[in-house]
């Protein structure tokens, strides 16, 4: 478990982007053996957004980044680091952060990707905090972007109904106006990695001309993932609160990873946070993995649910397994 407390760190701008194309549960019914009723009752998801042909994770991240920079009142040229969370990059190389940098019309920043699956944004906050601690004049652009619909097996109804595309972004500095990152905790258990996979790496060596196999797409043991997600999101949330002398009574809003409404409700129950203080928007977007938390933050602000003065608890869980929690004071 890693931690970085007592370091001044402000999250100064937020932005989010979802593609125009929407796939409703009723659209899925037409080509997957499923129903709106099943998806709604088991997950809470009603629709998800899908990148257009030719539009990639870097494009979504760039749109979100522009909005985050505008929200922070900053120009792209002020950015010193671009750090990008994704498990569905445009390429294995070059990294998506470099593509975002180029699309923003800048060069020279330190730019790299990292993969913590759905925990990417919270992991990114932890890394951004470490960067500004080491370099107090750093201006970090954190993007979290996914093109998951490109890695769904549309013949596997147990996974393809769950995910969507989108991106979120934030600008992080040591000072200035913005939400104070009070604390962040990240953890993992690689022994459980096989329960949620997306192949296409060098583990399965493809030869030129080979068709891709099922391993190329999202594969998941949903029931096991569900149990670990609830247990670990709740536990790490309690840990980050406890070590700051806080309880959930001190939290105005819980913004959890938007994977499944039943997971979110179970985490809220374990933490004793009533439903009206838990933000949910997965009915609109599905599970957008790393993008889900920053997408939810931007959405909660836009809807007036998240307001200045509020302390927000972020909780995430994803493939790896990875999980994390953060306290942001707006
Ligand atoms: C995937 C998930 C929704 C499945 O819900 P569940 O209640 O566990 O359902 P089960 O897997 O037990 O399946 C129940 C039945 O529904 C069927 N089913 C699965 N997907 C279906 C779908 N899209 N439409 C209709 N039926 C479906 C199954 O085949 C099974 O049928 P059977 O009993 O005849 O075998 C749930 O396990 C889950 O959300 N897990 C967490 C996944 C997640 O969020 N992962 C990302 C974390 S970052």
UniProtKB/TrEMBL annotation:
InterPro entries: ACP_syn_III_C, ACP_syn_III_N, FabH, Thiolase-like. Residues 112-189 form the Beta-ketoacyl-[acyl-carrier-protein] synthase III N-terminal domain. The active site is at residues 118, 257, 287. Signal peptide: none annotated. It is found in: Cytoplasm. The keyword Lipid metabolism applies. It comes from the Bacteria. Its main location: cytoplasm. It is an enzyme of class 2 (transferase). Pfam families: ACP_syn_III (PF08545), ACP_syn_III_C (PF08541). Pathway: Lipid metabolism; fatty acid biosynthesis. Residues 258-262 are annotated as: ACP-binding. Its EC number is 2.3.1.180. It catalyses: malonyl-[ACP] + acetyl-CoA + H(+) = 3-oxobutanoyl-[ACP] + CO2 + CoA. Keywords: Acyltransferase, Cytoplasm, Fatty acid biosynthesis, Fatty acid metabolism, Lipid biosynthesis, Lipid metabolism, Multifunctional enzyme, Transferase. Residues 241-329 form the Beta-ketoacyl-[acyl-carrier-protein] synthase III C-terminal domain. NCBIfam families: fabH, PRK09352.1. Belongs to the thiolase-like superfamily. FabH family. Catalyzes the condensation reaction of fatty acid synthesis by the addition to an acyl acceptor of two carbons from malonyl-ACP. Catalyzes the first condensation reaction which initiates fatty acid synthesis and may therefore play a role in governing the total rate of fatty acid production. Possesses both acetoacetyl-ACP synthase and acetyl transacylase activities. Its substrate specificity determines the biosynthesis of branched-chain and/or straight-chain of fatty acids. Homodimer. The last Arg residue of the ACP-binding site is essential for the weak association between ACP/AcpP and FabH. This is Beta-ketoacyl-[acyl-carrier-protein] synthase III. The gene is fabH.
